[in-house]
Amino acid sequence: MTSVGAGVRVIGSGAATAPQCLTNEDLSQMVDTSDEWIWTRTGIGQRQLCTEETSLAMLAAEAGRQALSAAQLDPQALDLIILATSTPDDLFGSAGQVQQLLGAERAVAFDLTAACSGFVFALTTAAQFIRTGAYRNILVIGADVLSRWVDWSDRSTCVLFGDGAGAVLLQASDETDNLLAFDLYTNGSLNSCLNLPYQGQPKTLIADKQVTQGNYQPISMNGREVYRFAVARVPEVIEKVLFQAQCQTSDIDWLILHQANQRIMDAVGERLKIPAERILSNLAHYGNTSAASIPLALDEAVRQGKIKPGDLLALSGFGAGLSWGAALLRWG
Ligand code: ACO
Hints:
Number of helices: 10
Helix content: 25-40%
Strand content: 25-35%
Bound molecules: acetyl coenzyme *A
Low-confidence stretches: none
Radius of gyration: 20 Å
Order of helices and strands: EEHHEHEHEHEHEEEEEEHEHHHEE
Shape: globular
CATH superfamily of the domain at 7-176: Thiolase/Chalcone synthase
Oligomer: single chain
């Protein structure tokens, strides 16, 4: 146990990408679409997809391993692993498999489900365990394999999604607290805009006892509603965290939004008057990787030397629930 009142520092990041590439051209052989339509409406050029050999847990563990290696931390030093995912290999949770793959025997591990907001929700959850003094080293992973649940014959959704994983390692600090502010929201009245719903058939057990058994249906989405929701709520929540931390938009070095659609990112940037060169975007290569998209973009920028110690990052996730949130984080 650490002393109560510890601050939060990020000491490493990592990512793992899925092995096979599906281009817009490939998609146009599957459904009635074109590279031009996908590119102009979404900013996506290709996406990386898992094969039969790559499980969600394997992808998540690889991202975690990279973060541990960047921080030069032994897996045995981990106290907690939070796996943000909506696509576990096992409905009981995949965090236990990740713990085992990493050899992090001391760590307690659990899944957290908040769709595309999952990484921001998991990061802020982890910070609470550090601030209360409960844990010292926490691995936060965002990982999703939405390709399992996309209807590959539905052109309105199948062009959007990809698979991937990203991670950050948080450590308690007695000197600093680099999570300057956060704010999280859910509006369940908009739940039907974006779903991956269970659908069961009645199954009679004995005369008057019945349950249902079934499966999950492919992703269904009201694209226009989700778009409207995102461009209204995301700038608002970012302004709220800036206000909490008494910062200005001009203080933000890097805006890292959930990579859903380039047009959403452009609209949010315009509303906040943040120039495009300070908004990280890699969805051209990966599509929408749900809970993985923010740490994937973050890790890429760290490894490219764009994000430097001391930089101020504004992170914002949004998606199913509908849910959304933002965190203001000083890097390093
Ligand atoms: N190729 C060609 N035509 C298409 C395609 C496609 N892949 N998909 C839809 N169309 C057609 C439609 O059928 C429609 O045709 P019609 O006018 O003849 O009816 C036309 O294109 C326009 O369709 P819209 O749905 O109105 O297109 P829009 O400009 O709204 O773009 C999009 C759709 C890209 C999905 C957009 O609404 C969007 O990005 N919304 C946000 C969705 C999102 O980001 N979701 C994920 C966030 S949450 C999470 O990450 C889980």
